[in-house]
Amino acid sequence: MSKHRFFIATSGNDDDAYKEAMRYACELADKDQEIKKVIILIHTKNNTGWFERLFGIDVVKQLFKGTKFKNCKPVFKFETKRTYKDSYTTSEIVITCGLDNDDLSPIDDFYSVKAIIAIPWLANGLDKWVQTWNPTELRGNQHAVSAYPEPSCIVKKAMKSLTNSINMSTGISHHSDEEQAKTYILALHKYEPSINADIIGAYLIRELNWDTDHAKDIEKLIDTLNNGKYFQGGRRTGLQNYYKRWKKECEE
């Protein structure tokens, strides 16, 4: 399933952004008969000020139960970070209200979400998500944030090899998978000119279909070494052999 991603480059109390997002969700639903619901995702039940100003308190109360608007097919419903769960039915658009990277990334993994319209609270609050996915900016500000560049060919070969050899449903939580990941990261850190955790994490998520939390485990290993620290585990000998193999694959 192809997930559609959009955002509005704004910050603070931009009530119009929420109105624009809801209007665009209606347009998306008109084009896709599978969309049955628009989730308005807020931090807590108290974070409804934008919608009280737009629609009044009575409509806000209805949104907690689910309600429809004139000339718009899907049901709109409030959910909070605590209450929203994956329904495993591809039928929902999510409008995220003031959430940041850490809040949004797990939602992006939900199978039920066909489209995301993200509205940040802080101007840079969604930079990592935006740089990972390069979503469409709905106000036409296409240069709001640049996408992460591609990692080097050697890094790609290493991450593809790792992806093909681990249990993708559990990431690197199993001891043998963790050992292999650590070995690969040690080899890249030793022989590559530089490795960037954010760039590699984005590549794992965007191109190799890693879950966000599993990609973060790889990012943490990279950050540990880049910060001059060490981790236990991983083979410390023969690292050059791995690197030579990836380099050869790139030259073929």
Question: Could you give a short description of this structure?
Answer:
47% of the residues lie in helices and 12% in strands. It has helices at 15-31, 49-55, 57-65, 101-108, 127-133, 153-165, 175-191, 197-208, 212-226, 239-251, and strands at 4-7, 37-42, 75-80, 92-97, 113-119, 136-137.
Write up what this structure looks like:
The protein is of the alpha/beta class and 252 residues long. The chain has two domains: 4-137, Rossmann fold (3-Layer(aba) Sandwich), CATH 3.40.50; 153-251, AhpD-like (Up-down Bundle), CATH 1.20.1290.30. Helix content is 47%, strand content 12%. It contains ten helices and six strands. The protein has a six-stranded parallel beta sheet, sandwiched between helices. Helix 5 (127-133) packs across helix 8. It is elongated and about 65 Å long.
Low-confidence stretches: none
Largest sheet: 6 strands, parallel
Q: What number of domains?
A: 2
User: What is the H-and-E element order?
Assistant: EHEHHEEHEHEHHHHH
Class by helix and strand content? alpha/beta
Number of strands: 6
Tell me the helix content.
40-55%
How would you write the strand order of the largest sheet? 3-2-4-5-1-6
Report strand %: 5-15%
Radius of gyration: 21 Å
Shape: elongated
Mean pLDDT: 94
The total of helices stands at: 10
Gap between N and C termini: 32 Å
The CATH class of the largest domain is Alpha Beta
CATH architectural grouping of the largest domain: 3-Layer(aba) Sandwich
What is the fold-level CATH name, i.e. the topology of the largest domain? Rossmann fold
Keywords:
six-stranded parallel sheet, Rossmann fold, alpha/beta, 252 residues, AhpD-like
